[in-house]
Amino acid sequence: MAMIFCRGCGKEIHDSATACPHCGATQSGSSSGQQGSKWMAITALVLGIFAILATMAAFADGADSEQILGIILFGVVSLVFAIISLVQKRWGKGLSIAGIVMSAISLLALFGA
Ligand SMILES: [Zn+2]
To answer: CA angle at residue 42 from 36 to 45, to 5 degrees?
Structure first.
């Protein structure tokens, strides 16, 4: 857990604190809202990785249409999370872009098959 310096008094406080416990100044740059939205970019990345791995497995071992539909669903959910995360300028821009690239590759591969 990282520590930041208060905007009001300069004392060290926890980066998830919305207000300084010493002087009460609000810390808008590190609001709990931004902290709470990290899961979106992380989920997009994890689902993107899953989609591309599942796509490679499907091409290697062969998959029925039900499995391919499931992989497409993961890819689409990953894309949606990543795009929302980027549009709302949430934390994890790099993770979101990586999620978009991986899910896009797996979707293109699946639809092209
Ligand atoms: Zn303070």
So the answer is: 160
